[in-house]
Design goal:
Blueprint lengths: L3 E4 L3 E3 L4 E7 L8 E7 L6 E7 L4 E3 L7 E6 L4 E6 L8 E9 L1 E4 L3 E6 L1
Parallel strand pairs: 2-11
Antiparallel strand pairs: 1-3, 3-8, 4-5, 4-9, 5-6, 7-8, 9-10, 9-11
Length: about 110
C-alpha cells in the first residue's frame, strides 16, 4: 500500500516562508517522479514542482526562484521549501507520485494573508 502524508501547512503572512514535508511509505526511488501540486476551489489543479528519477526538476513559472524541492531518497521524503509567499499561493498543497499510476496524499493547507 502506497501512502503519501503531507505536513507543514499553516497560516502565514505575505513574504513569509514555510517548509512542507511529504513522507512516503515506500521507497521513493521506485517512482518515476514525485513532487507537489496545489489546488484552489473552483480552479484546476496545477503542478508546483516535480522531481524525476533522472535528477531533473521542473518548477512552475509562479514558483521559480521561490520554491525548492528537497528530496531525500534514504528517508523517502520530498520537502517543499517555500519562500516569499504571496496571497496567490494560498491553496491545498498535495504530494503526488507516479509509477504506472498516480498516488496522492490528502494535502496540507497553506494560507497566505495580505
Amino acid at each position: 500500500q502506497v501512502q503519501l502524508v503531507e505536513s507543514g501547512g499553516d497560516l502565514v503572512q505575505a513574504g513569509g516562508s514555510l517548509r512542507l514535508a511529504c513522507a512516503a511509505s515506500v521507497n521513493i526511488s521506485s517512482f518515476n517522479h514525485i513532487g507537489w501540486f496545489r489546488q484552489v476551489p473552483g480552479k484546476e489543479r496545477e503542478v508546483v514542482i516535480m522531481t524525476y528519477l533522472n535528477g531533473m526538476v521542473v518548477t512552475s513559472n509562479t514558483a521559480k526562484g521561490r520554491f525548492t524541492a528537497i528530496r531525500d531518497n534514504t528517508k523517502n521524503t520530498v520537502d517543499l521549501q517555500m519562500l516569499s509567499l504571496e496571497p496567490e499561493d494560498t491553496a491545498l498543497y498535495l504530494c503526488a507520485a507516479y509509477q504506472q499510476t498516480w498516488y496522492w496524499g490528502r494535502g496540507t493547507q497553506v494560507t497566505v494573508s495580505s
